[in-house]
Amino acid sequence: MTVQPLMNEKCVEAFATEMLAHMTGASVTLMTSVGFRTGLFDVLAELPPSTSETISEQARLQERYVREWLSAMVTAGIVTYDPDGATYHLPPEHAAVLIRAAGPDNLGTLAQMLSGVALVEDELVSCFRHGGGVPYSSFPRFQEVMSDAGDPSRSRAITALPTLAPGLVQKLEKGIEVLDAGCGRGFVSIEMARRYRNSRFVGYDFTPEAIEYANERAKSFGLTNVRFEVHDQANHVEPERFGLITTFDAIHDQADPERVVSNIYSSLQPGGEYLMMEPAGSSHLHKNLDHPMATILYTISCFHCMTVSLSQGGKGLGTMWGEEVAIEMLANAGFHNIRIEQVEGDIESSYFFARKPY
User: How far apart are the first and last CA of the chain?
Assistant: First the structure.
């Protein structure tokens, strides 16, 4: 007869309390995403303590839904409530990380990313049982969500280029050809084209909708030194054409990341530079135990980055493929002088700089 070990009931109770806190956090994430997408945080930030009727009127939303959302926000400690006047208020300290104007510090963008990837749970469970992956086509609003989440950080990185990469800005001011591979909606190329008019910029992505959006946005700025084209970097090489190639959060979910990095190397001129932004972290789980966003990043990996790669028969590196594997991949492609930099205030990203030897 097997003797079952005695359980520590206090440990059971403590763990149950911890799990309830996790689930409460998940509920807050869902409602934060709703508040971000509907503009409720932005409206609340502009109003004095107000009733749900006033808030819904200003936001042009249905009052009954707004009132229920506000109830969740109040019980979560995000919005304050005065029962005497039945008024709600978003403290400015809370608004600072929830309104769109918060830029890179906005956590609403992360909330909508998490709620968005959760839509594929049924498909993901099937992958757990049968293998394969969930394709990009299963993710509605993917390019929009990625743009909201990533563009503020990319803007901060572009601003930090003079200190991140000494000498690169001088090259851009003089005039070089620049490629952003996996450009999405084209934010990086457009922002750099506006700053460095003597350089010529091109963005490649395999998503036609994103490229159409990018070209229209470039046109709205009247830019003549930037364009966007549909290409898959795994199958596209332009030998020794570019002085700078960038990828932002684009390598780890490729089906064949080694081939993409190798093609980037081939497309650079001798002495050309490659800037690769990827999620910060180690390739080794035990080194990520104190990472403040590790659980979130592993979750996004499972629900998106890893599975979209596997859906194409790819390697499924995942979001947390880590600096060690990244450096090895860059070296194997032929890059020299590989270094990793951080941007102040951006705990999510590592910036890899590498040069193609002459």
Answer: 72
